[in-house]
Each structure stands twice: as C-alpha cells, then as structure tokens.
Amino acid sequence: MNLLILGGNSDVAYALARLFAERAGAGIVLASRNLELLDKKAKDLEIRYNQSVRAVYFDAADTDTHREFYDSLNPKPDGVVAAFGYLGDQGRAQSDFQEAQQIIQTNFIGAVSILEIVAADFEKRGQGVIVGMGSVAGERGRQNNYIYGAAKGAFNIYLSGLRSRLSKRRVHVMTVLPGFMDTKMTRKMKLPGLLTATPEQAAADIFNAFNNSKEVVYTRWFWRWIMAVIKVIPESIFKRLSL
Ligand SMILES: NC(=O)c1ccc[n+]([C@@H]2O[C@H](COP(=O)([O-])OP(=O)(O)OC[C@H]3O[C@@H](n4cnc5c(N)ncnc54)[C@H](OP(=O)(O)O)[C@@H]3O)[C@@H](O)[C@H]2O)c1
Predict the structure, then answer these.
(1) Structural domain of residue 59, as residue ranges?
(2) Is residue 232 in a domain?
(3) Helix (H, G, I), strand (E, B) or coil at 29
(4) Per residue in 208-222, pLDDT tens?
(5) What sign results for the dihedral spanned by CA atoms 88, 163, 26, 56?
(6) Is the CB of residue 219 below 6 angstroms from any atom belonging to ligand 1?
(7) Cα 32 to ligand 1 centre (Å)
(8) Which one of 70, 97, 207, 214 has the fewest CB atoms closer than 10 angstroms to its CB?
(9) What is residue 178's predicted lDDT score, i.e. its pLDDT?
(10) Is 243 inside any structural domain?
(11) Are 132 and 115 in contact (CB under 8 A)?
C-alpha cells in the first residue's frame, strides 16, 4: 500500500510510519513543513526497512496550496493519515485572535481542506482509508484549552460525517481520539504518567485499529471510559472543576 502521512514530523506519526514500513511493507510519503528534519526521517526509514519513503513539503494551514500538493503525488495514496496538529497557547489565544485563528486553521480548516480533496479522489476510485487524529479535548470544552478543543471537536464531527458519506463507496474513515501523549506537543506540560501514552504505544493502538477497520479508537483504551464519565458531569458542576 501507499500511505501518505500529513504532519509526518509528529512523534506519533513517525512511530506509525515505522510500523507501516516494517509490518505492512508500505511505501510512505511523509508530508510536513520542516523538510530538513523530515528528509532525515525518511532516509532512516528507507534504509532500515527497505521501503520507498519520501519527504515532501506540506503546510496544513496554507489551504490554497492543497490542490496542487495532492495533484503532484504520484502514485496516489491508498491510505492517508492526518496527524498534524497545533495545540497553541490558550492564554494568548484569548487576547490575540491570530493565535486563535492559527489553532482553528491548522486543526480544523486545514484538515477539511486537504481531506475533501483526498475524499473526492478516494470516492471516485472506490477505495481508500482516511485516518484523522482528533483528540479527547474535542469531546468536552475545558477552560485550559477550549479553542484547541473546539477545533478538534469540529474535526471529530467532520470525520463522522465523512465516514458516513464515504462508506457507500467502500472508503473507510477512522477517527483517532488520543488522551495524553508524551510528544513534543506536550513537552512543556506536566502529564500524569499513568494516563500518558508513549508515541510507540499510541502508534501501536492506531496500527491495530487500522488493521481491524475500527471506526473510532481511543488511545490508550481507558480514555473511552474516562471520557464517558467526563461527558456526563452536569455543566453546573463541570464549570466549577479545574479540569
Ligand atoms: N500529544 C498529545 O497529548 C495529544 C493529545 C491529543 C491529540 N493529539 C493530536 O495528535 C496528533 C499528533 O500530535 P503529536 O502529539 O505527535 O505532536 P507533535 O509531535 O508536536 O506533532 C505535531 C506535528 O504537527 C505538525 N504541524 C503543525 N502545524 C502544521 C502545519 N500547519 N502543517 C503541517 N504540519 C503541521 C508539526 O510538523 P512540523 O514540525 O513539520 O511543523 C508537528 O510535527 C496531532 O493532531 C495532535 O493534535 C496530541
């Protein structure tokens, strides 16, 4: 298979690329903005697993370039993982709309822009798998990250609708809902060890779910139950909690 990983510099995406190259013999295109770093990762994977691995420039926020980007891919992918994400700074976003806009542009608008292009191609071909990395932050608004959470929540809903539309054309859409993961995105945060996945654990969860054609996967699995509880807390109580 040919796998396109958008946001290929993400720590989880790179761990996932390793699994696909090693265990599925996939040819891989890693797409992101830091091409120098991406190139090193692609070469490393190519040598290690003897698969074709290429690095290409892609900016999720620059939606005007998405059509040309996808048209330039040859061969076309049969699997696409949207792994890019921008946590941003909630405090800054409250007073600087540009920061809020960057969060929404990267996590939602950019994702919709590129995935609609992918979806149209897969729909026409009657095959393909799309994996979108949402977040449990999109399941309930928290005071500490509600702008990022709102963008991810919109992305979760988008993926649900896309799954429904494309299921008629034998195209599968999988939503990944990570809880805490120990990656460069969360480097400055103090995360609870027991609830935090390594990039390798998260990648293994995604790879297994992909192979089992799951619709929605939480990583780690216990986040499904944590969120089930968090979602039923009444607003009148939830607003007083410092979650
Ligand atoms: N870490 C967590 O606790 C956590 C929890 C829930 C959900 N998630 C989601 O999981 C996914 C993977 O994140 P991660 O934890 O592996 O974080 P990460 O290592 O920081 O990766 C995020 C990647 O997104 C890329 N990116 C940001 N803006 C981009 C843009 N405009 N265009 C293209 N690429 C862009 C960056 O690539 P460049 O370096 O090339 O700029 C970066 O490598 C993300 O969607 C994230 O929102 C993470």
Answers:
(1) 2-238
(2) yes
(3) strand
(4) 999 999 999 999 999
(5) negative
(6) no
(7) 10
(8) 97
(9) 98
(10) no
(11) yes
